[in-house]
Automatic annotation (TrEMBL), chains A, B:
NCBIfam families: glyox_I
Family statement drawn from the similarity comment of this UniProt entry: Belongs to the glyoxalase I family.
The name this protein goes by in its record: lactoylglutathione lyase
Signal peptide limits: none
Amino acid sequence: MSRHFDQAQGLTEEHDPATHEFVFNQTMLRIKDPERALKFYTSVLGMTLIKRLDFDEMKFTLYFLACIPPERLIDWSNDDNQRIVQTFSRPAMLELTHNWGDESDDSVSYHSGNEQPKGFGHIGFAVPHIDDACERFESLGVEFKKKPNDGGMKGIAFIKDPDGYWIEIFTPDRLPDLLGGRL
Amino acid sequence: MSRHFDQAQGLTEEHDPATHEFVFNQTMLRIKDPERALKFYTSVLGMTLIKRLDFDEMKFTLYFLACIPPERLIDWSNDDNQRIVQTFSRPAMLELTHNWGDESDDSVSYHSGNEQPKGFGHIGFAVPHIDDACERFESLGVEFKKKPNDGGMKGIAFIKDPDGYWIEIFTPDRLPDLLGGRL
């Protein structure tokens, strides 16, 4: 039996034991203004700031955020060093990089990856109820790239963060029906 | 007590119950050649292809990959619809997008986000032993942006995937010492 669940050219069947404990830990995005970005990710998406790292010599700060339900905050250490280990061990950390001064430099804006030259596309969040989530986003003044009922792929939304990065929003249970005609 | 572990401007203290079940599920990167990219992510990084979705009308395919130790493959359903729900529910999925024909179109290459215009920076993987991991990457012919002993931040490496995206490689246990002078 294959260790992959679908077929494709290029798949390596052998699972090298050297990779057994590898963890896809983080995705890093540059941000212009940390106050604006942190407000968005901690209010609109409910994320928690797990670790802040200031690099004085190089004049930048990293902010590591995660989706943590309040009852799971106890999983995280209050000891700075322990929490650094946790921050770099666990899956699905969002790393925001702030180069000091960007927030007051009118010449600085970051590239979403969705205009030329294209590359990175988006990050994506699962939500329990897409329509409720999008109504809430609208009430919070969030900018939409695509509302759930726009375009061909009903039931999937794209919002924009304050830097213009795209964030896909979907409800997993609804996707088999949504994708049904396309498999 | 704050629900955040460090201080910063912009943090929202209240955790809106509407966001309690939000999951940071995915990071999407466009790739030129799926055979080349899948070989890299399944061999060099040991990832598993969880779901492939072909969109015939729009002429693109999505490949969803995860770091799954072999003993945890049983957590994933062999039923396509169940596995779609899992694919979009779980944290730390890597989504690779292939626009058909890119692989044979010399004019197409994707932007890493680390040259102008900058934006997305990198994805990052935790590995149990940074030196062993990097020796193995070298033996596999992986391109390095930074080896662990290069530059100022010893013990952290950056490799490049076949499209040129940067991938940070680090060993969590070693980071408190490494970052010690900077906190």
